Amino acid sequence: MIVAVASLTVLALGFGLLLGYADLRFRVEGDPVADQVDGLLPQTQCGQCGYPGCRPYAEAVAAGEAEINLCIPGGEPVMRAIADLLGREPKPVEEAEEKGPEVAVIDEQNCIGCTKCILVCPVDAIVGATKQMHTVIRAECTGCEKCVPACPVECIRMEPVDEGLAGWRWPRPAGIGEAA
Predict the structure, then answer these.
(1) Which residue, 12, 53, 55, 158, could crosslink 102 as a Cys pair with Cβ 3.0–4.6 Å?
(2) 117, 106 in Cβ contact below 8 A?
(3) HAMAP family annotated for this entry (predicted)?
(4) Among positive and negative, which fits the CA dihedral 16, 17, 20, 25?
(5) 108 and 66 fall within a common domain
(6) Strands (DSSP E) along the chain, which ranges?
(7) What's the predicted TM-score (pTM) here?
(8) Using one digit for the tens of pLDDT, what is the confidence trace for 39-66?
(9) Residue 47: left if φ>0, alpha if ψ -120 to 50, beta else—which one?
(10) Measuring CA to CA, which residue among 39, 41, 91, 35 is closest to residue 67?
(11) What pLDDT is stored for residue 96 in this prediction?
């Protein structure tokens, strides 16, 4: 028994040292500017910017290959934060709509269980099995809307998220804050 414990301990220490050496020897340094830009993005992985996720978009912005105003979910605040970080001139977010956060809802009576929505969901917020009813985990859904066109029976719709009292704000009167 003691021999088995001792041999497993020696193996664990050996593999630990080997992994530590591999980490130091084969370390890949990332771009610190891309890391900072990625930290500012909302991490919805929605692809509305034209890139497959937030990290590739952050790398393109840091390299100067992409504009700073392409993040639709982040909107104006994220664009301004990226402009401040990179020292660029702010640009208007062109395609942003003035709508609140939304979440996907599946009409479970009409769902045929084709799994096409599950395959396109970037955050795995849709659960279900083949030829079984699917549903959306509301807390995980980022509202990217990728599942809506993927559904062949059109049983997915987007609904606004009820933020409750925590998200309530006084409505801004027309004309205030627009000239900033």
Answers:
(1) 158
(2) yes
(3) RsxB_RnfB (MF_00463)
(4) negative
(5) no
(6) 102-106, 126-127, 135-136, 156-160
(7) 0.57
(8) 999 888 877 888 888 999 999 999 999 9
(9) left
(10) 91
(11) 46
Number of Cβ atoms within 10 Å of the Cβ of 93: 20
Residue 96 lies in a domain: no
Question: Is residue 3 one of the residues assigned to a domain?
Answer: no
Q: Has 54 been labeled as part of a binding site?
A: yes
Here the CATH number for the domain that contains residue 61 is 1.10.15.40
On whether both 74 and 116 belong to a single domain, the answer is: no
Domain membership flag for residue 63: yes
- Other CB atoms within 10 A of residue 157 CB: 12
Task: Say what the pLDDT of residue 180 is.
Answer: 43
| Same domain flag for 74 and 112 | no
- 49 has binding-site annotation: yes
* pLDDT of the residue at 139: 85
Q: Which residues in the chain come in under a pLDDT of 70?
A: 94-100, 163-180
Structural domain harbouring 143: 102-161
Annotated binding-site residue? 155: no
- Phi, psi at residue 45, to the nearest 5°? 55, 35
Closest to 27 in 3D by CA, of 19, 35, 37, 39 = 19
Determine the pLDDT at residue 52: 84
CA separation, residue 11 to residues 6, 8, 17, 25 (Å): 9, 5, 10, 21
CATH of the domain at 151: 3.30.70.20
Question: How many domains would you assign to the chain?
Answer: 2
